[in-house]
Design goal:
With about 300 residues, the chain is α/β, with parallel strands linked by helices. It starts with a helix and ends with a helix. Helix 1 crosses helix 3. It has 9 helices and 12 strands.
């Protein structure tokens, strides 16, 4: 049995398709099918069952998958440690984000971490929350960032920062001349919220802010992300409550002012595995905790 047998097996198991797995591995489908056949002969059991939608793991395949992943991680870790020793590198972090967390907070973290650990490299992935959790369990993702996460028994969730929420308005709107606006003043205003997917999300926080102030917002549009939301605001479609980190996006047609009485806030969270952590992750988490105390 060779390592490529395990790599090919894991790819097919994760893609639920020989065709997609072959594309991911940059090989043609026939050799992939042969390698899986060889592996099944060596294991002595059928690992996949064909379905109308592709392939699914058999009971034997499901049992084999966890060990195959662990074996590949062990080999990859051994190779990585050897390479780091040879090149003086310290490690690598796979980081995922969703929505507005890519603005201000995450760039600040990566910048400061780079100063502390210049030889730790970072990859960024834009993933919805459910895919972040799945990627953590699959072992290839180290940490994810978003605004809300469900509770998971094997995943740690930690607050990164609690930031003010501000009001975005079209610069042509008379409201833009003000420095602040009471939340009650939004009662009859058309509003744009985001994101429309991956709920609960910041959109649900906006609903809560309004309901706690005593009214149901007049939502005229739901957008996929912050950029689309601000584009509609700039076009005069409506007003939007957004995290203060949105102010790092400079659109000449959009003005920002304080939302007051009360002052709404929104927290960014990170998630990571409770076990089998990347050796570079504790230092990154320590930086998160330091900046949470001292400010971003």
């Amino acid at each position: 049995m060779e390592l490529r047998h395990l790599r090919y097996f894991v790819a097919v198991a994760e893609e639920h398709s020989f065709r997609r797995a072959a594309a991911r591995l940059h090989i043609s489908q026939p050799p992939l099918s042969r390698m899986i056949g060889q592996l099944e002969e060596q294991v002595g059991a059928q690992l996949f069952a064909r379905t109308a939608r592709g392939v699914e793991l058999t009971d034997a395949g499901a049992a084999f998958l966890d060990d195959a992943r662990r074996a590949l991680r062990a080999v990859n870790d051994a190779v990585e440690r050897s390479r780091r020793a040879a090149r003086g590198e310290l490690g690598h972090l796979q980081i995922a984000y969703y929505g507005s967390t890519i603005f201000r907070v995450l760039p600040k973290l990566i910048t400061e971490f780079g100063k502390l650990q210049p030889q730790v490299t970072v990859d960024l992935h834009n993933l919805p929350k459910d895919r972040q959790i799945r990627a953590l369990r699959e072992g290839w993702l180290d940490i994810g960032f978003s605004r809300q996460y469900p509770k998971e028994p094997d995943v740690e969730c930690e607050e990164v920062v609690c930031e003010p929420v501000v009001l975005a308005v079209a610069s042509s709107n008379p409201i833009a001349r003000r420095t602040g606006l009471p939340m009650t003043a939004l009662r009859d205003e058309p509003m744009v919220v985001f994101p429309a997917m991956s709920r609960p999300s910041f959109a649900d926080e906006v609903l809560r802010f309004c309901e706690e102030t005593g009214f149901t917002p007049n939502i005229v549009k739901e957008t996929e992300d912050l950029m689309a939301c601000l584009a509609l605001v700039s076009a005069g479609i409506g007003l939007a409550l957004v995290p203060i980190s949105a102010m790092s996006i400079h659109l000449p047609e959009v003005s920002f002012l304080k939302a007051i009485k009360p002052k709404p806030t929104s927290s960014v969270y990170c998630v990571y595995r409770k076990s089998e952590q990347n050796s570079s992750l504790p230092g990154f988490l320590n930086l998160i905790r330091l900046l949470r105390r001292t400010g971003y």
